């Protein structure tokens, strides 16, 4: 998408966005269909796919419906926890930039030019600073509280966007002359990402925690619940700290799994769910078309992500070694 250009890029982004919203509507309708059929108040994504394959006219799909449920849940866990890991990097990197910029500003105002002697902290220390606050944040499992947190995060992001657009519509001055006051844009974005971490974390938590709870005594459920939440948050911190180029790994995960979850599975699920009830040829062709586009996007996105990871990790390293040798 980043190589699409200024005309094709926004148009293709709009088209993909419309298709994703349509696929979300398909998924919700299929979930409601199976809630009514199975007399259940709620079915999640994995259960909906499992029931959809069980209703399929193809024997192979019916016999592998349980594996499809495991696949969907695994993709959800990997994708959401990967995004949470990147959130740690985003928070730490932005606050590191802000604190170092303020420190440089203070030194310059005091007519001290020895910027190299500033006691800069490592990025991992900033990440470690956020860890206890993130753990406290994810202990709220109530969707109402998560909605409040998400609203607060979106408000912060909107505030930062308002600051950005306030300068876009004006004559943009030299960036070096902007007050450091406008580092608040980074702070507002970081606040928004911090609060939306809990919403991203909710999906894998709702999959993993009930599974763990089924193996523990009832009197220990609260302690285990809190422990599992803290452990999962610590795992996202460890992934962000240990895995190099975490942003590129997340692009790879997004291309490989988000395409499957958002564009490939829902249209095929609609065909499996309503095929016995009678589907028009238009709906079948439409669903197959969306799934094929999702498959192509998955293949091309995964290839591009692999290419960038390999190029930056191997070819760039070999070029640096060659320059040092010369």
UniProtKB/TrEMBL annotation:
UniProt keyword terms in alphabetical order: Membrane, Transmembrane, Transmembrane helix
Membrane topology: Multi-pass membrane protein
Primary subcellular site in the record, as a coarse category: membrane
Presence of keyword Transport: no
Boundaries of every Amino acid transporter transmembrane domain copy: 1-169
Residue intervals passing through the bilayer: 6-28, 70-90, 121-140, 147-169, 189-215, 222-243, 249-276, 288-307
InterPro entries: AA_transpt_TM
Presence of the UniProt keyword Transmembrane helix in the record: yes
Entry GO terms, CC: vacuolar membrane
UniProt-annotated location(s): Membrane
MF GO annotations: amino acid:proton symporter activity; glycine transmembrane transporter activity; L-alanine transmembrane transporter activity; L-proline transmembrane transporter activity
Top-level division of the source organism's lineage: Eukaryota
Protein name per the record: Proton-coupled amino acid transporter 3-like isoform X3
Organism for this UniProt entry: Phascolarctos cinereus (Koala)
């Amino acid at each position: 998408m980043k190589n699409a250009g200024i005309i094709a890029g926004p148009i293709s982004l709009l088209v993909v966005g419309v298709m994703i919203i349509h696929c979300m509507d398909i998924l919700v309708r299929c979930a409601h269909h199976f809630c009514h059929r199975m007399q259940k108040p709620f079915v999640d994504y994995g259960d909906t796919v499992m029931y959809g394959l069980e209703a399929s006219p193809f024997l192979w799909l019916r016999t592998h419906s349980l594996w499809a449920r495991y696949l969907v849940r695994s993709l959800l866990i990997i994708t959401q926890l990967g995004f949470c890991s990147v959130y740690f990097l985003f928070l730490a990197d932005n606050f590191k930039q802000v604190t170092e910029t303020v420190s440089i500003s203070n030194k310059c105002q005091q007519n001290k030019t020895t910027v190299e002697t500033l006691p800069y902290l490592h990025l991992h220390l900033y990440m470690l600073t956020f860890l206890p606050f993130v753990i406290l944040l994810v202990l709220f499992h109530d969707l109402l509280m998560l909605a409040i947190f998400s609203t607060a995060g979106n408000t912060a992001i909107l505030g930062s966007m308002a600051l950005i657009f306030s300068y876009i519509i004006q004559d943009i001055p030299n960036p070096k002359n902007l007050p450091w006051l406008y580092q608040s844009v980074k702070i507002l974005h970081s606040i928004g990402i911090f609060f939306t971490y809990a919403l991203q974390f909710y999906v894998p938590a709702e999959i993993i925690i009930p599974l763990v709870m089924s193996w523990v005594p009832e009197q220990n459920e609260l302690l285990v619940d809190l422990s599992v939440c803290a452990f999962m948050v610590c795992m996202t911190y460890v992934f962000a700290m240990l895995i190099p180029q975490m942003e590129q790994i997340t692009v790879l995960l997004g291309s490989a799994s988000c395409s499957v979850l958002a564009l490939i599975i829902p249209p095929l699920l609609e065909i499996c769910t309503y095929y016995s009830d009678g589907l028009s040829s238009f709906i079948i062709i439409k669903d197959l078309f969306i799934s094929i586009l999702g498959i192509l996007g998955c293949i091309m996105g995964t290839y591009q992500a692999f290419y960038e990871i390999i190029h930056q990790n191997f070819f760039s390293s070999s070029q640096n070694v060659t320059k040092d040798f010369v």
